[in-house]
Amino acid sequence: MTMDTEQFTVRHDGVTIPVSRGGSGRTLVLCPGLTSTQAELGELIEVLRRDFDVVSFDLRGHGFSSAADRYSFEAFLGDFAAVLAEVARLGMSSAPVLAGHSYGADLIVHYAAEHPDSVGELVLIDGANPIPAPFITAADLPGFRALWADLAAWQRSISGTPRQVLLSAQEILDLNLELDVLRSGIDLDIDVVGPGILDRYRKIDRPIRMIMATSMAGDSGEGRAPRHNRLWRTGIDRLVREQPHISVCWLDATHALVVDHVPEVARLILDRC
After folding, report:
1. Helices 169-184 + 73-90 axis angle, to 10
2. What's the CA gap between 182 and 176, in Å, rounded?
3. What is the CATH number of domain 6-272?
């Protein structure tokens, strides 16, 4: 990051969270996704700082945030609320724009549903999707275990850097299984169907823009990708039918759009906000 930035630390639930703030304009708080860090989002952050006062941070166990005794959606949401509280204490010109990628998008939807008066607008980047069925089926488990085992092994090779992730492969898998239930409302293990994230959207009366990837799971015609891409599109169609005020922009991209399509993502955020 090349622009002048303010660095400070938030401590919550035994975790130390490094926060960076820089730029000028309306405050925008950017929440990274699972296994992603503010260092990975550095290019997007730099571009956004031309028009926004951008606040970025690392999730617990990511980047230079400290490790934690537990990793769960509730724990990450508590950390995010602590960061927002500190930013509010330091001062903002108005209610902030909340932007999040992937898991980060889900966090800001849940936060906004619980604190509607403290949010200006939401920008959801390829996340917070009310998919009609879980991504990870029993048949998928071996493949995902292998995927995240490879990721955890690679992470050990970058230990000590701003891009490190301290979570184990099992912890990452468990978080993704939990997220499937939160999004779809379906828990295959106990055969329970609930409202899922749609119930959270019903509690938000702020403007929402979604920037979604057409090939979220990749453009392969084999393996899991076709099913996951269909679920991704169906989930957004489902959301817009119920919440037609939500604006959705589709990019010809994969889930890595925050790295691979920075100019387009930044433009879409700016056009809305």
Report:
1. 80
2. 10
3. 3.40.50.1820
Q: Which residues of the chain carry a pLDDT beneath 50?
A: 1-2
Q: Identify the three-state secondary structure at position 252.
A: coil
φ and ψ of 250, to 5 deg? -105, 130
Q: Quote the CA–CA distance of 166 and 38 in Å, as a whole number.
A: 15
Q: pLDDT, tens digit, for every residue of 228-272?
A: 999 999 999 999 999 999 999 999 999 999 999 999 999 999 986
| Residue % of the chain over a pLDDT of 70 | 96
**Residue 23, phi-psi category: left (phi > 0), alpha (psi -120 to 50), beta (remainder):** left
For strands 121-125 and 208-213, give the pairing: parallel
Each domain of the chain, given as residue ranges in start order, spans 6-272
